[in-house]
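#struct-queue
[09:14] JT: dropping the first one here, sequence first, then the structure tokens:
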Amino acid sequence: MQPTTEMISVRTLLLSRDLQVIETLCHFAQAMGIHIEPCCDVELAMGKLCHAKFEGVFVDLGFQGGLEFLRKVRTLTSNKSVVSYAILGQNHQQADACQAGANFVLDRPLLPGAVLRMLKAAYPLMVQERRRYFRCPLQIAVFVSRGGGTEFTVKSLNVSEAGICLNSAQPMQVGDKLRLRLRLPSNSELLDLSGEVCWSEATGRVGIQFSNVKPGVALTLRTWLTERLEESLQQPTNSPDGPIM
């Protein structure tokens, strides 16, 4: 990783009422650019996960309902691939946590060395999750064609590693297979992509999911998005309107 990439901030949720757990995790996480949002209520924590994207979830299994909460996290559409951590309680074993979907497990009491090792191992996974969901506002011309049809031009609205949102005067239907050609700002390479329409609105907004992206194109897109993500973290911004898919 480049030094700037290592400073990408990630957002995590912590379900616990244990002050020692909260203070220890927050202390070590802050130095790594990991923001922890403590929560001491299961329903409130679930509501946060349903309405916002997190890159990590810490669950204290000593908390009543913690194990069931950990299981439910994997059923949430927006956070099903979140990196999850289980802090074992007296009545729970590591096998319980892993079966509930935990990626990492910590024993009580939380020892500084163990916490640091876990965070260092998990951090790249959370950064990857952040990049995967990052939508960058982007207004450029995109050249589109269907099958062997004539190429036409539309405007983009935002882009991610997984797909792109377009504003098209020509109607597109869910399931349409498209070829896309575009040039990212400050990049001389013309990217050639394939995709499928996964949602469409009467206003002309359409969501395209990329498919069979060539490794070189994927690397170019990922690098460009990483640079934009780093820039976005240096100033407060609102989330782009509308989903990619």
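[09:21] JT: and here's the second one, same format:
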Amino acid sequence: MNTNAVIIEPNEPATASVIWLHGLGASGHDFEPIVPELSENLTRKTRFIFPHAPHRSITINGGMVMPGWYDVTAMDIPTQQDAIGIQDSEQILCQYISQEIEQGISSQRIVLAGFSQGGAIALHTGLRYAQTLAGIMVLSSYLLLADTVEKEIHAANRQTPIFMAHGQHDPTILLAHAERSRTKLEQHGYRVEWHSYNMQHSVCPNEIVDISDWLNGRLS
């Protein structure tokens, strides 16, 4: 049994997988309650994997140790990004993808998803992954290491659909950061489905409906 992740198995043999990363200070249990709210057409054959982030010292929180995919050194997101932590978490996510492929799930039936820090790692990893994925879902998040992305993106995921959703009143990751990330992705030729909602740094019911529809389109 994998104790590093919450895994929800479908009622029928899995033909697809969603690997969904939580935000800073949370755990894999954070988005577990969303699964029953998704389309039954999707969930009956889709495995959901919610990994727990490793514990690390977070500079912006006074060095407190908590679950995090990378360190955050300043509220101004583009400054001094933790490239080593980001790459470590990219490798963790790649291991989960490999485990799904070993269980017979095609990479083209795997969606990488995440909220906040988790969404940033899902996007970072998906753009660089060497096999085609079904999609990348980025919730209340942004593009990491934007200065180096152009030379690191992999041709295998040039056509992979990206779902981006953000709160219009998000005080943690400003809407402007997400909009800049979307623009950068579109400049590189990615297809981004963009949604914004009347909320802060969270997930709302309308967003869950849109997530369900998008995942259904990718995987059902």
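[09:30] RK: nice, looked through the second one.
[09:31] RK: The mean pLDDT is 95.
[09:31] JT: good to know. The helical segments are 40-43, 83-102, 117-128, 149-152, 175-187, 205-219.
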